[in-house]
Structure formats: structure tokens, C-alpha cells
Amino acid sequence: MLSVHERAQLVTAARLYYESNLTQAQIAQRLNVSRPSVSKMLARARELGIVHIEIRAGDEGKADLLQRLQSKYALAGGCVLTDEQDELTQAMHYLMAETTADKSLALGWGYALGEVVLKAADCSSYTQDGMVYPLIGTANFPNKGYHPDELVKIWASACGRSCYMLGCSAFPDSEEERAELESRSVYQQLLQQWQSLDAAVVSICGYPAVPDEATATRFGDALEQQKAVGSFLSYYYNQRGEFISGNNDYCMHIPLAQLRRCKKLIGIGLNAGKKALLGALATGLFTNLVVSEEQAKALLK
């Protein structure tokens, strides 16, 4: 049996080593014992259960958070990113693995999605069969994340898919211009493909956001009046998941009816706040969600 003094000394050594991060040499000097004695004290503390060391892989904590998200929001899957240093690469690997068996894949736009796709350009570890399509036209923004035709080309090149490009602006100036774009064969063929998508990946964004997606022209004050909290594919919604329409909204993007038919809709929520994520989940469209560990914990509160 340990004496009270001996046990107290083991506890002190353990606290200095595991909690204060002192070296064994520093502890020896502080306790006025030899360094080998400190090593024996730490081993003894573990044997007696004074110190309990639990080693957990990062994925275990992540898996628990994901399971709780799936249960709370009726999700089929997703990924909780635990690598704060390189969330984008982690997200890219998840998307590559998740969509490998999906022959018909489509990509949206947004800063986060663009950064994830650019990570794929440096990766040659995956081979996928099938096609990859854009879900929306191109915006006149310098950021590549808002050039979906370019994103599908990069993704296809990275994994061996074929790609299809829309080749038009996301924001026509008038209803007549949109009608003309929709009459083109390239759009009509894409419309057919949108009806049978296996998987789609979109960025979930907050509102208001930068860059602004011509919201004043398209929606007037409707987004403010109806309390928009976020968007994806330039579809805006409130916290109840209700979509907001605009009198001059001529956006060239996949119709919601087709998007609802998509078997797997993956939301990249890395740049979105809690309200934007909750509103997106409330739409009932998303089957999979990619968020940071911090975001996951916020959604579970």
C-alpha cells in the first residue's frame, strides 16, 4: 500500500508531466529526485490508475459528431472536418471518395467549393467514370469558384471523368435574354441531364455575402423583407427553408424541381454561419453535409 506521502508525490509528478508539460529532468529538479526516479514514478502512477491515458483517432470524434448530425437532421452522410490546418484537402478527399460510384455528377459554385476543386487539381489518387456537369452559369467575378464550367473541367481532368459545359452567364439582363439562352441546344441537353443526377455538390453561403450576386436587381427588397439567411446556387431562402422569389430573377441555374430529384445533394458549408446552415437543412434538399468540427458542434446545440 502506498503511504499518503508516496501517493501525493506520484500525483504531483503526474500533474507536472501531463498537465504542466515539464520534462522529466525539470520534474526531477523540482522534486529533488533523480530523473530515472521520475520515470519510475510516472510508470507507477499509470499502473495504479492515478493516470489514465486514452488514445483516440481524430476520426472517432468526427464520426460521433457526424452520427449526431445525421440523427438530428435526417442526413444520409457527410463529413465533419477535424484537420483545421487543411480542411479544404480533407473535404476534397471526402468528395472524391463519396462520389466515386456516382456516374452523373454536377457541381455548383461558391468560394469554398472552388477552393476544394482546386485542391483536386493537385491530386492524382482517384479515378472516376462518368460525367460531371455545371449546375449554374458563370458569374462575372474574378474568383474561379464562380466559374462552374472551369470547375467541372478541373474536376474531370483530376479524376478522369468527361465534362459538359454550359457556356453562358448566370445572370441574363432580361427575361427575353434568358429565354434565348434556354432555347439553345447546349442548355436543352443539360436540362435533360439534370433530371437524372446521381450526385450534386454545392456551396452553402450566408446572406448578405461577398460577392453580391446581383441581388438588388433580381430581388429588390424581397430578401430583406422575407429575412433571407443564406443561399446555394443563387437560390435564396429564409431560416424556415422557404425559397424567396424575385420579380426580376432570371438566373440560369438548375430548376428546383430537377434539383429535388437528385439522389444525393452534398452541401459544403465551410463559409456559412449557423443560420445559413439551419435554413439550408430546413429546405429538405440536402442528403450530405460537409462542415468543420466547430460548425457541427454549433448545429448540435
Automatic annotation (TrEMBL):
<comment type="similarity">
    <text>Belongs to the SorC transcriptional regulatory family.</text>
</comment>
<dbReference type="Pfam" id="PF12802">
    <property type="entry name" value="MarR_2"/>
</dbReference>
<dbReference type="Pfam" id="PF04198">
    <property type="entry name" value="Sugar-bind"/>
</dbReference>
<dbReference type="GO" id="GO:0003700">
    <property type="term" value="F:DNA-binding transcription factor activity"/>
</dbReference>
<dbReference type="GO" id="GO:0030246">
    <property type="term" value="F:carbohydrate binding"/>
</dbReference>
<keyword id="KW-0805">Transcription regulation</keyword>
<feature type="domain" description="HTH marR-type">
    <location>
        <begin position="16"/>
        <end position="59"/>
    </location>
</feature>
<protein>
    <submittedName>
        <fullName>Sugar-binding domain protein</fullName>
    </submittedName>
</protein>
<dbReference type="InterPro" id="IPR000835">
    <property type="entry name" value="HTH_MarR-typ"/>
</dbReference>
<keyword id="KW-0804">Transcription</keyword>
<dbReference type="InterPro" id="IPR036388">
    <property type="entry name" value="WH-like_DNA-bd_sf"/>
</dbReference>
<dbReference type="InterPro" id="IPR051054">
    <property type="entry name" value="SorC_transcr_regulators"/>
</dbReference>
<feature type="domain" description="Sugar-binding">
    <location>
        <begin position="61"/>
        <end position="301"/>
    </location>
</feature>
<dbReference type="InterPro" id="IPR037171">
    <property type="entry name" value="NagB/RpiA_transferase-like"/>
</dbReference>
<dbReference type="InterPro" id="IPR007324">
    <property type="entry name" value="Sugar-bd_dom_put"/>
</dbReference>
<dbReference type="InterPro" id="IPR009057">
    <property type="entry name" value="Homeodomain-like_sf"/>
</dbReference>
<keyword id="KW-0238">DNA-binding</keyword>
<dbReference type="GO" id="GO:0003677">
    <property type="term" value="F:DNA binding"/>
</dbReference>
